[in-house]
Design brief:
The protein is 57% helix and 13% strand.
Length: 359
């Protein structure tokens, strides 16, 4: 139901005026009762020269009525102005909310003055708008990039099929192999998008998980890849128990180890060190790898979906779709943890995952 404009201001005005009227009436009543104590109720008055109570009533009552009318008028006018001044910040916040509702998320209130309740509400609203604008922009980029990434394998498949249709004598085995590769990549991208959506939505069953066991399982799975690239895998550490989805956390550890193996020294001879342990009330997983030196401005972008820094692009079968660290970030965030990325001075990357620990 729509509210009448100015209803809150009118209520505050009536409240101010009513409070002032009651206060004035109480003050007049106190004065009146105080005076009556010293005014005799007889025909001669006090000492024969002062007016009696009857005359005082008739002289004081009209003046009191005029004073009460003045207080009421002053309370209404002053209360209206005061209520307008007090509600002005709320009006600015309401206008900003209407603009945000129409899609203008770039508008900010930026209220100045002393820090009171309205200033805190304004700052909180500006912070919410900033986060919402960033989230909407990220979702738009994600949708555009996902559409582009999904369109690419479909376009390649269509091209291959058109070529095969125009050239019936073309080698069918080569066509099948190329279609298989493109289809596998499309399926991998779709599964990665679904996994990213699950992590962002937080829709999973929680159970007790040990990160050290997940690290050993991921290393065992990726050992053939590491041997193929002549990368040494070293997994050590103590138990690091967390409460979450074993499937998502295993995918998180696998992605980190796979990235560390793939983005390593191109000539071989690199290392990947995986460490687990408990630090106070948190469970810690560290994955450190050798590799090329990374630019400092590249590090913050590695967790964005479909972001591939020029130093981390692969042209082989492990090129990926740019969702590895994005999935890691999503899983860590869904488990109320933190993800830290740091470039090693000698080259490579150090990734630190901290999750709330359990006894």
């Amino acid at each position: 139901m729509a509210r009448r404009p100015g209803s809150a201001r009118l209520k505050l005005t009536l409240s101010y005026a009513g409070f002032l009227l009651v206060a004035g009436a109480l003050l007049l009543a106190v004065v009146w009762l105080y005076l009556l104590r010293y005014v005799p109720d007889n025909s001669r008055g006090l000492l024969g020269v002062s007016p009696n109570r009857y005359l005082l009533v008739h002289a004081f009552a009209p003046a009191a009525a005029v004073a009460m009318a003045g207080l009421l008028l002053f309370g209404l006018v002053g209360g209206w102005l005061l209520a307008g001044r007090m509600l002005a910040p709320l009006t600015r916040i309401t206008d900003a909310a209407r603009l945000a509702g129409s899609g203008a998320l770039s508008h900010r209130i930026r209220m100045t003055g002393r820090r009171d309740e309205f200033r805190e509400l304004s700052d909180a609203f500006d912070s919410m708008l900033e986060q919402l604008e960033s989230h909407v922009a990220e979702q738009r980029r994600f949708a555009a990039n996902a559409s582009h990434e999904l369109r690419t394998p479909l376009a390649i498949s269509r091209t291959l099929l058109d070529v095969a249709r125009k050239d019936p004598a073309r080698d069918r085995q080569d066509l099948v192999e190329r279609l298989h590769v493109v289809n596998t990549r499309a399926i991998g991208l779709t599964e990665a998008l679904l996994l990213l959506s699950r992590g962002d939505g937080g829709t999973f069953t929680r159970e007790r998980v040990d990160l050290s066991l997940l690290a050993e399982e991921a290393a065992e799975t990726l050992l053939p890849l590491a041997e193929q690239r002549r990368v040494t895998l070293d997994v050590t550490g103590a138990a690091a128990r967390a409460d979450g989805s074993a499937e998502l956390l295993l995918r998180m550890v696998t992605n980190l180890v796979q990235n560390a193996v793939v983005h390593n020294l191109p000539e071989g001879g690199g290392t990947v060190a995986v460490r687990t342990g408990a630090d106070g009330g948190t469970s810690v997983l560290r994955v450190e790898n050798t590799g090329p030196r990374l630019a400092p401005d590249l590090i913050p972008t590695l967790t964005e979906p479909f972001r591939r820094g020029t130093d981390r692009v692969r042209a082989d079968e492990h090129a990926g779709v740019g969702l590895g660290l994005a999935i890691v970030h999503s899983v860590v965030r869904a488990h109320a943890g933190t993800l830290g990325l740091a470039a090693r001075p000698a080259g490579g990357l150090l990734v630190t995952v901290r999750l709330p620990g359990v006894p």
